[in-house]
Design brief:
Elements: H1 2-8, H2 35-38, E1 40-41, E2 52-57, H3 61-69, E3 74-78, H4 82-91, E4 97-101, E5 105-107, E6 113-120, H5 123-127, E7 138-143, H6 148-157, E8 164-169, H7 172-180, E9 188-192, H8 196-211, E10 219-239, E11 247-254, E12 257-262, E13 277-282, E14 286-289, E15 293-296, E16 305-310, E17 315-336, E18 344-349, E19 355-357, E20 369-371, E21 380-385, E22 390-391, E23 394-395
Organism: Arachis hypogaea
InterPro entries: DHQS, DHQS/DOIS_N, DHQS_C
Keywords: Amino-acid biosynthesis, Aromatic amino acid biosynthesis
Length: 403
């Protein structure tokens, strides 16, 4: 009987989450918490400001275990596989919340409807989809002829509704579209897969977005040396996003100290503003990318992701649209913190449009950034101090000397 209890005690009607989670994914200790809340990810980014819920639909135990290990514990079972719900509830590494897919609906273990399932295969069916017509608080849409535009239309139709809308996704790439469409995305997804890789990829996707809620620790550093360095191959990084004053990329010759290099968004008398571009430095330099990693500027290409950071340490993910490598005159800038005897450096193109970002208190002087052509010894700039030892861009603990 104990095994039956573990299977049924958590099967309760779903409710819209009324509390926030401090961490990325939380499995509440209270088994009476709704299945929706137990699988909710809080992802406070510019593209997904609301909480996102993930349900898993699979018949593969490896997928189930992998999902549980990553905090997703609500699973869907169709009629031929209902026996799996009982088996997994008794053998899983954590408590699972089983739901059962019926004809046009999803039920809990007591036969109570927790969601409606709507198949959409034509534009006419999509046009007839109305929030007020559905009795369930949760609506799962199955786009049989999957496209991006229907996802956007669904979001627009349910924008002012109190109902939570999910979409069935057969891959991580589909899930991303549903979670990001029209910037807001749907309330959640039903990931219907038999391959563990899709679970791993989706978790990595959420982890990257969750980073944006954390302020990056930046510190003041004082410029100690400036020297013209001759010619070198420098990299301009053009993003698929616009940057505003005070934003840029974290770049440096050493991973232990990355400088905040300003975008070309500032107006100039000699060249048009390019708020999508950062003239980031030579090919050897490190640049911060999602996941707490770095990569070489020479490794960036279209479709790669980088971290855009502002003066306060707020960060967001941006996609690289284009990379330009050209031979240009360079200037060497060295700096160090007052509390640190170790010097870090960066090489940048010697041009008026290339600038380093100042600490926030400089804003009172209307001084967001200092062009490298105007930089002086004693000026204060922003620096990101971190571990210097890296293996394929991942920070590791080992002895290292870089000069």
């Amino acid at each position: 009987m104990a095994s039956v209890c573990c299977f049924t005690s958590s099967l309760v009607p779903l409710h819209r989450p009324i509390h926030q989670f401090s961490s990325f994914l939380t499995i509440p200790n209270n088994k009476n918490t709704s299945a929706t809340a137990t699988a909710t990810a809080i992802v406070p980014s510019t593209s997904m400001k609301n909480s996102k819920t993930v349900w898993i639909w699979t018949t593969t135990q490896h997928v189930m275990t992998s999902a549980l290990e990553r905090g997703w514990n609500t699973f869907l079972f169709s009629s031929p596989h209902q026996n799996l719900a009982h088996h997994w509830s008794c053998t899983a590494v954590a408590v699972i919340f089983p739901l059962f897919v019926g004809e046009g609906e999803i039920l809990d273990g007591q036969g109570k409807r927790v969601a409606s399932v709507i198949d959409v295969s034509t534009p006419e069916e999509l046009e007839r989809l109305r929030p007020e017509d559905e009795q369930s608080e949760n609506i799962v849409v199955n786009l049989l002829d999957w496209q991006v535009i229907p996802a956007e239309n669904i979001i627009a139709a349910f924008h002012n509704s109190q109902k939570r809308v999910f979409a069935i996704s057969n891959s991580t790439s589909e899930a991303k579209i549903f979670l990001e469409a029209l910037e807001h995305g749907l309330d959640g997804i039903v990931l219907k897969v038999e391959d563990v890789e899709h679970v791993l990829e989706l978790k990595e996707y959420f982890d990257k977005r969750a980073e944006e809620s954390n302020l990056l620790s930046l510190t003041k550093a004082t410029v100690t040396r400036i020297q013209v360095a001759g010619m070198g191959d420098r990299v301009c990084v053009d993003l698929c996003s616009l940057m505003k004053p005070g934003e840029g990329l974290m770049v440096g010759s050493f991973a232990r100290g990355l400088f905040l290099v300003h975008s070309e968004c500032l107006e100039s008398n000699y060249i048009a503003s390019r708020p999508f571009r950062v003239n980031a430095g030579p090919v050897h330099a490190y640049v911060a990318v999602p996941g707490g990693r770095t990569c070489y500027l020479s490794e960036l290409k279209s479709g790669k992701e980088v971290i855009v950071v502002d003066q306060q340490g707020r960060q967001r993910v941006a996609i690289v649209g284009r990379v330009k490598i050209e031979t240009r005159p360079l200037i060497l800038v060295e700096a160090k913190r007052d509390s640190d005897s170790q010097t870090v450096s960066i090489l940048l193109q010697n041009a008026e449009t290339v600038a380093l970002i100042c600490p926030p208190q400089c804003e009172a002087l209307s001084k967001t950034a200092v062009p490298v052509t105007s930089l002086k010894v004693g000026d204060e700039i922003l620096l990101r101090v971190q571990g210097g030892a890296r293996h394929t861009g991942i920070e590791i603990q080992e002895f290292i000397v870089e000069i």
